Amino acid sequence: MASMKQESEGKRPSGVGQAGKSLFQSKAALSTSALAWKGQKDTRVPFSILTPQDVSAIDKTHSAVLFVGDVPVSEEGWLVSRVRTGEIPDAVKGAHPNSCPCCTSFSALGQAMAVLFQERAKGLCEYFTNLIIICSAENKTLVQENLARDNLAIGFYGLKAVSSRFFCQS
């Protein structure tokens, strides 16, 4: 038995697979969330979730807006504007995760976003390049959690990271 050698003995993985391609990921995306927008190569429409106070610096001329919940509505200046009233359900209550093979999770907000996407594709509204969801600060996390579980929303839209506001004083 001492004369038997394993075929791979002495060989070390080189990190290079077939056709000279690396076996390992060389550039990781910033987020592993399916909802996250991956940048210019991502074919989905980027969207942001903002509060009414955060909207002042947004370019409205190329943006669609979806007002969610009880927030002040000002449709002025937006390329496309929609309002979604009603309660935002708890995303975790009774919902299966995204990968559940027995069901597909759709939220009313995700359906409203899908309808807006279809209108854009059919030419029934102006062609917007990004979507802004405006909700109260209290509902911001709840809206994001709902959309992260919504397969329909994930298919059409990607959540664009919004940096926090920083103030430097010298």
Structure description:
The chain is an alpha/beta fold. It has helices at about 110-120, 140-150, 150-155, and strands at about 45-50, 65-70, 80-85, 130-135, 155-160. The chain has a five-stranded parallel beta sheet. It is globular, with a radius of gyration of 22 Å.
Major β-sheet strand ordering: 3-2-4-1-5
Poorly predicted regions are: 25-31, 163-170
Number of H/I helices: 3
What is the strand tally?
Answer: 5
Structural class: alpha/beta
| Strand percentage | 5-15%
Helix content: 10-25%
Q: What does the radius of gyration come to? A: 22 Å
Kindly report how far apart the N and C termini lie: 75 Å
From the structure above, extract its key features.
170 residues; alpha/beta; five-stranded parallel beta sheet; 3 helices; 5 strands; 18% helix
Put the structure in a nutshell:
By secondary structure, this protein is of the alpha/beta class. The chain has helices spanning 108-122, 140-148, 151-156, and strands at residues 45-50, 63-68, 80-84, 130-134, 157-159. The longest helix is centred in the C-terminal third of the chain and has 15 residues, at 108-122.
